[in-house]
Task: inverse folding
């Protein structure tokens, strides 16, 4: 058979495939084996060669049960407020600053600093609010109002305000979660509560005390949220005076993430923020969500 005849037969076959909608990909047949596709590639002589390509693997199972099972036997190697997987700063465009405020929830911690929140609204200053499930359950109407305001992004601050650990490691005298299961539960119960409240899942998580081990960081990421730390500790757990809050915030650099609290109206946080945020704005800073 001549070379011209070979090309003629190949052209006829290609036309037949195109007419049936097959193109150059073979029709898939259901089997128990992983599917694959066949595509045409050119050989060194220019003749078509059929190349088989394996189908991409399925996405990982990141259901809470699967995440817990993957990490149940792991031992952490790192502990603290900063490590790979936690964001503590962001890539700023100009002099941008991200304000975050925690509402820790629980006995004595279910209040709200209305003067601070109303100031943010009046001045049109956006912020990311990390709400604990206990705080949401104690303030459902207020939480819904905050979630409906586009100035605020609501984020996950856990269920019991525990450091996120798989060994029970403590921070500031507060015992952490004691296993992969407890760490996932601390994240997921409030993930579901916020999803119900907002109609969409939260994007960010901050552990109680902002402490994590590296296994817990992996668990948060696989559950679909990003662990958040801070680069400015603005009010030291709502214990700082207004003057100390102002001093901490005045050291802000572009791309900083500040950590303060919104559940203690008697603390110096509100007065300090109300005094310093207009100054930062006058210095050219703009405030953005994470």
Result:
């Amino acid at each position: 058979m001549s070379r011209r005849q070979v090309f003629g037969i190949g052209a006829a076959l290609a036309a037949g495939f195109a007419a049936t909608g097959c193109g150059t990909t073979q029709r898939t047949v259901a089997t128990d084996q992983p599917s694959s596709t066949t595509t045409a590639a050119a050989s060194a002589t220019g003749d078509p060669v059929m190349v088989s390509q394996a189908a991409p693997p399925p996405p990982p199972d990141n259901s809470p049960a699967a995440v817990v099972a993957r990490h149940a036997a792991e031992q952490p190697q790192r502990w603290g407020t900063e490590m790979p997987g936690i964001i503590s700063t962001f890539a700023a465009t100009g002099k941008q600053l991200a304000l975050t405020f925690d509402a820790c929830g629980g006995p004595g911690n279910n209040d709200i600093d209305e003067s601070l929140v109303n100031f943010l609204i009046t001045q049109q200053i956006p912020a990311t609010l990390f709400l604990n499930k206990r705080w949401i359950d104690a303030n459902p109407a207020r939480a819904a109002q905050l979630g409906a305001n586009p100035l605020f992004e609501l984020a996950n601050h856990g269920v019991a305000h525990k450091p996120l650990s798989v060994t029970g490691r403590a921070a500031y005298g507060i015992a952490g979660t004691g296993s992969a299961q407890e760490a996932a539960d601390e994240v997921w119960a409030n993930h579901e509560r916020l999803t119900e409240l907002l109609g969409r899942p939260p994007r960010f998580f901050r552990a109680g005390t902002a402490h994590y081990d590296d296994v817990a960081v992996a668990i948060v990421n696989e559950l679909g949220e990003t662990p958040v730390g801070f680069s400015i500790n603005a009010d030291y757990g709502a214990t700082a005076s207004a003057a100390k809050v102002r001093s901490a915030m005045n050291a802000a650099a572009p791309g900083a993430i500040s950590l303060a609290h919104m559940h203690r109206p008697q603390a110096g946080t509100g007065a300090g923020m109300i005094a310093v945020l207009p100054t930062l704005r006058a210095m050219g800073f703009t405030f953005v969500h994470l």
Observations:
- The first strand starts at residue 36 and ends at 42.
